Amino acid sequence: MELFNVLTVQQARSVLAVHLPVWHKEETIPLLQGLNRILAQDITAKEDVPGFHRSTMDGYAVRARDTFGATESLPSYVDVTGEVLMGEEAHGPVGAGQAWAIPTGGMLPPGADAVVMVEYTEELDKRTIGITKPAAPGDNLVRRGEDVSTGAVVLNAKHRLRPQDLGLLAAVGVTEVPVLKPVKVGILSTGNELIAPDQPTSPGRVRDINSYTLYGQVLQAGGSPTLYGIIEDNFESLRQALIGALHENEMVLISGGSSVGTRDVTAKVIETLGNPGLLFHGIAIKPGKPSIGAVVDGKVVFGLPGHPVSAMIVFDLLARPLIESSGDGQPGRSFPLRAAITRNIHSATGRDDFLRVTLRRLEDGTIVADPVLGKSGLISTMVKADGVAHIPLTKEGVEAGELVDVWLF
Amino acid sequence: MELFNVLTVQQARSVLAVHLPVWHKEETIPLLQGLNRILAQDITAKEDVPGFHRSTMDGYAVRARDTFGATESLPSYVDVTGEVLMGEEAHGPVGAGQAWAIPTGGMLPPGADAVVMVEYTEELDKRTIGITKPAAPGDNLVRRGEDVSTGAVVLNAKHRLRPQDLGLLAAVGVTEVPVLKPVKVGILSTGNELIAPDQPTSPGRVRDINSYTLYGQVLQAGGSPTLYGIIEDNFESLRQALIGALHENEMVLISGGSSVGTRDVTAKVIETLGNPGLLFHGIAIKPGKPSIGAVVDGKVVFGLPGHPVSAMIVFDLLARPLIESSGDGQPGRSFPLRAAITRNIHSATGRDDFLRVTLRRLEDGTIVADPVLGKSGLISTMVKADGVAHIPLTKEGVEAGELVDVWLF
């Protein structure tokens, strides 16, 4: 029996980071296909947005100094010498004592430095208005380059594109986007008790759950999953299957094998395959302890527990960040929700605990987390839960009422 | 000038719900395509999971009563009369004074009612073990049906499928899933100042942002978006474009038209099209007030503000819930994060305010929200932000340090 090399989650992440292969394959895709994709390069604006001073109100473009001192009882009178048309260049100039009518979004004509809202004007005749409230230079304007200025990095490499990011890219005229290719992830299940979901059950056999949860998790993380099905529980079958999956993927997840022998087979197979090989065998977390991490000739292999809850949690902690950022270990979901746990929970120090919880909102807006009880082999507990609460390895547990980090599903 | 019919967000949702068309088109898809799809029907388990009592430990299946009183100094001795093989039916029976070896995940043989962990046994010879700690009936077992019991509704209609839900469906043998068809959403932009992102800018013109942010938001909500491009800013062009888009979609979003006349054109066009027509014209929120909602012969139309930030926020509040639940108005994102705002923010009562914020984590774990300043016409403010904080319409504002709900992007 070999010695387990048990690491904390942080140590496991660090050792993976040291040996992490360079995965940065790029491709260029149309902007409309960019949602949730990860930028491969910084995006720099080649022009100002907007490209001109732009009115934010319906009103009149003026020289602010012409309005100084204006009041309702003593308006400043200016001549209306032009009109800005939406979408057209406003040539101006607006001279002293002059104003141009301007719509919201219209271009400020040269000479003018502010917009007076139509509400603060009164029309004397078609050629003259009275202004009843002074404007300061810059009033009611979006300045040229106020949204984006030329040369600014508007989005950083490794950023995952959200709807507003697509909008910003459209604004700066970027219609083809350099993104990272999705990480290819092969998924293998082991365990002689497993049958495929479309097979009838029989005594002693259960259906393969992990292939499907992991497939969903890989997709959610932005990876490209391939299922290799249920692999027979012996060294040679697993070795052949793993070699095949490593050939076609950048990461391979092997889950299960809850029978006695199997737990070590994955590690033994990995040791025959390439360098640096096994990085850890066991993580100081609950659930999920019997997990394996390895890098084999530039590919990552995780051996995940057979229990569906444990496999999901270890995936989220270790595999997801690698897929989401295609290599730099920075997780995509950056802020947990803070909720008050509703019962005392014991936990051992030196171990990160993850507790399935459902959330409830109290009348005062507070969010509380109720632990979902049940063994880590029960997928129904993950289905009931809204997220997992984290009890850090520095703590011996949490007391009812204490705030904990909850990572939502 | 027509009278604005300004509603609160809640009133707008209610009036939409009253007139909401029935959208529940179903389709059946393979399980592996189910991630993020919405169930069309309750899923009921047709069998127990697991289908047999299952060991959670490596050890021995026994009759618990045979272990009562066992201690390290006075073990209970039992005969090992069989071995459970992984994935095979265990016929037993395990009689009084007998034990079967059993692996984790193995089927409990008839006659036995508990498993003793191998750690609490000592092997005398191949046929006899000593048990050093008593077991209670049910110890170290997952009972038949403990994960899922026959006849239980395991997932409800309208539930959006997460990775663990795919796992549960696999467990109960559901490989074809009845889901709602994605809501088809047509997206139109109006505004004579707009040009497409692949066009060069010129003074007075800006690129269309809203088509792209809304396209991303519709996709994110699980809808199927189609862009109809930039529509000329007049009654007849908009009417023809809207009729075309209504024909091909279940929902149409018209954004923009920030020029004076345009703001009313959308409403006027809608009034010529069908029943019940315009439901509200203006919502008591900031930003996003000049928004329109309508139902036209069984299709939903939203007129969204031209400002990108406003359009995104109104989409999230009103359109997203309709797309996500395909009709029942129940939003998909159910829990906001609670964060302490870092400055005093004034807000008018009677109006829901939404504040772009960035989040920071303090040393003690607290999450604080810093307001992102900037006009609602600036898409860069949405790009900087991590989410939006909600100041409810009952409040006059929030004070620095107060906890607010933040909806993460």
From TrEMBL, chains A, B:
Keyword Transcription: no
GO CC, any one term: cytosol
Domain of life, per lineage: Bacteria
Cofactor(s) listed in the protein's UniProt record: Mg(2+)
Residues annotated as domain MoaB/Mog: 186-325
Function noted in UniProt: Catalyzes the insertion of molybdate into adenylated molybdopterin with the concomitant release of AMP.
PANTHER family reported in the protein's UniProt record: GEPHYRIN, MOLYBDOPTERIN BIOSYNTHESIS PROTEIN
One GO MF term: metal ion binding
Annotated EC: 2.10.1.1
InterPro entries: MoaB/Mog-like_dom_sf, MoaB/Mog_dom, MoeA-like, MoeA_C_domain_IV, MoeA_C_domain_IV_sf, MoeA_linker/N, MoeA_linker/N_sf
Catalysed reactions, as listed in the record: adenylyl-molybdopterin + molybdate = Mo-molybdopterin + AMP + H(+)
Organism the protein comes from: Desulforamulus reducens (strain ATCC BAA-1160 / DSM 100696 / MI-1) (Desulfotomaculum reducens)
Family label: Belongs to the MoeA family.
Name the UniProt record assigns to this protein: Molybdopterin molybdenumtransferase
Keyword line: Magnesium, Metal-binding, Molybdenum, Molybdenum cofactor biosynthesis, Transferase
Pathway involvement of the protein, from the record: Cofactor biosynthesis; molybdopterin biosynthesis
A biological-process GO annotation: Mo-molybdopterin cofactor biosynthetic process
Classification via Pfam families: MoCF_biosynth (PF00994), MoeA_C (PF03454), MoeA_N (PF03453)
UniProt keyword Nucleus, yes or no: no
SUPFAM superfamilies: MoeA C-terminal domain-like, MoeA N-terminal region -like, Molybdenum cofactor biosynthesis proteins
